[in-house]
Amino acid sequence: MSKEKPKLDKKLLAAVILLVLSALLALSGSFTAKTLLYQGVQTEEVWITGLDGAKLRAVIYKPSNAQGKLPAVIVVHGLGASSDTMNAISTELARNGILVLSLNYRGHDGSEGGVNYIGDPIAAPNISNDLFASLTYLQGRADVEKQHIGVIGYSMGSRAALRLGILAPNINPVVMIGPYYAWEISTVNTTRPSNLLIIVGENDIITPPSFAELLFNYATSSSGKPSEVFGSPSAGTGRKLVIVPGADHYTIVFTKKAIEETVEWVLLCFGKGKATYYLDPFLLGSLSGSASFLSIIAVLCVAYLVTRYYRSKGKIVQVESKSSIRRTFAIILIIVLSILYILASFYTFPLIVDWGWRVYQFARFSGAQYTIFYFLFLALALLPIILVLVAIKREILGDAVQKLKKNWIPGLVTVLIAWLTVYIMYNISLTGVVANYAMTPTRFALMFYLFALCLPPIFVDEFYLRELIQDKIPVKKWWLQLGITIILEYMLRVLPFAWWVGLATQPLVAEGILKQYVAAGLISLENLDTVKSFLGMNAYGLYYAFMSVEMLHAVVASYLYKEYRNIGITSIFRALTVAFTMAAVMALL
Known about the structure:
The protein is α/β, with parallel strands linked by helices. The chain has helices at residues 10-37, 87-95, 127-139, 156-167, 209-220, 256-270, 282-312, 327-358, 368-392, 395-404, 408-430, 441-467, 478-504, 507-519, 525-564, 567-585; strands spanning 41-49, 55-63, 70-76, 99-103, 144-154, 174-177, 196-201, 239-244, 365-366, 587-588.
């Protein structure tokens, strides 16, 4: 009698295939991007000694067939970024015969020193001095034409680039992308700095076109017209303003228009002829988007496989909610709770901006405090709602406590493996192309520190999202409940910031709202101007961050709760991944 063949487990097979495919697609996409990106380009990692002794990491890009001396440019990124962010510009310049020194600012991507924005632009150990050290380094290289050295800066880097152009007259040209400046504008005129190109995105909120136009007016005595060359590039008095259609502050360095304008301006000012182009930067932007999508698939597959293993071993305890309510009331409750969540997130945002700027150098990192304060103030706003509901229906708290006692070992193992998958996928997809997610010991230490700060308020947030919303969705099919939860959670995260981004384009409306905070004593009058100035920037930054990273959280944390019914497990996953993404991109102070 023949033995019956075991049935093919289609779900298991599908999960394994999807996991392998997502990893292979991420690898092949990254390999393709890097192959195209570095075609005809050779790179070299160098270390530059800052004026205060800090070791600064930089990457040299030059043509593969380079011989003799080459004109050179210093390329500098924005806050929380790295030299990888500027790869599209750096490699295209190199293919056109320019030696590029792409600097990692102090406190960024392996560079020492810590970011310091304050102080004299020459004497203080700040980002401007790193450019002077880079200039000295280039002037000492045997393969550099010392009379042809320019600078290109993006966002925060554009201000440092402008300072270098003002304080070092031999720097020519100066390119500002997403231009940022302060006192420097008073020193700009028709001859200083040499050959100034200003590029700004049409939809930029952080450094809007009006900001760039004001600088351009100073540089041309209000006689220049956008898109037209003012002055004489051969005489060093060239000026040009380019407004890139459809681009914003974050996408502008990956637009074809910005790269072409930059390369053509540099070659024009160096007298090196016409530019040729090889890479469409849209590829790099597409890679970034696909990396997030592939990461979600890979993490879900891993979570499913680990959970399935523990279920087969009988290690996962089935826990059902004892707090049941009628379908109609459940729908009304979810709608009300969702509206309250959005309002809580919306109305606490000005406090996030206020507190974030008051402690700008908070705990040795820059920028992460906004995310920490977001979860903190949101938790404080949600707590009264939770307490009221628990007082009305006490079994809600009892349910949560009972669930918290279950499934810790398999849940924690799943979370750690899921986080490791996120780490691997982000690195194979993005590191070396458009970002750097490789973690140093310092960044790992920072990640665990951020994790400890974020975990308590995230726990409150998870209680609200899981016990009060996900558990109450009145559908029987698990996949439908999970889908509704993911959509709801993503909307709750993103909509409040989208709302503020819209208000940032209406200063009078935003100011009217902020005056109510002053009247209530939540924001001091002396801090009002600061909050007004940086409201749009911070709303824009958090909106971008939550648009990408929150999709991963919404999908995976919702799935983990479905499997383990433990908000402690989902809180740890969320806090760990939030801390990782912050530690990977934050500037160390």
